[in-house]
């Protein structure tokens, strides 16, 4: 159980500092529910799991970069801005990838439901 102490503390820190992480968790839960309702295939589940994990992973890394930058300097520095901006961009890339995966998987199910 000791192995889970620090990761759980990390989760609590994330939920307190980064409201986007909580929003991503809520979105992930919504996607999981929709996936169950549409009874998606095993292969589709793999892509959904990868997409959700990628966004959450990048959000964790982004928050970690923000903490490290804030530790190094509390003054404005252009390189600190670049570090935070590029880490944030990584979250955007993962989010866009996940959106595309979701569209590829769910649009056919939605169209079948409508027509």
From TrEMBL:
Pfam families, alphabetized: DAGK_prokar
GO MF entry, a single one: kinase activity
Membrane topology: Multi-pass membrane protein
InterPro entries referenced in this protein's UniProt entry, alphabetically: DAGK, DAGK_sf, UDPK
Keywords, sorted A to Z: ATP-binding, Cell membrane, Kinase, Lipid biosynthesis, Lipid metabolism, Membrane, Nucleotide-binding, Phospholipid biosynthesis, Phospholipid metabolism, Transferase, Transmembrane, Transmembrane helix
Main subcellular location: membrane
Tree of life domain: Bacteria
Family classification: Belongs to the bacterial diacylglycerol kinase family.
Full protein name: Diacylglycerol kinase family protein
């Amino acid at each position: 159980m000791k192995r889970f102490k620090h990761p759980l503390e990390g989760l609590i820190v994330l939920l307190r500092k980064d409201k986007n992480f909580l929003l991503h968790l809520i979105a992930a839960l919504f996607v999981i529910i929709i996936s169950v309702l549409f009874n998606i295939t095993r292969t589709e589940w793999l892509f959904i799991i990868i997409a959700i994990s990628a966004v959450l992973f990048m959000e964790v890394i982004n928050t970690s970069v923000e903490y490290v930058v804030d530790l190094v300097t509390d003054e404005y520095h252009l390189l600190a801005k670049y570090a935070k901006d590029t880490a944030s961009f990584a979250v955007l890339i993962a989010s866009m990838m996940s959106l595309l995966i979701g569209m590829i998987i769910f649009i056919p199910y939605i169209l079948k439901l409508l027509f």
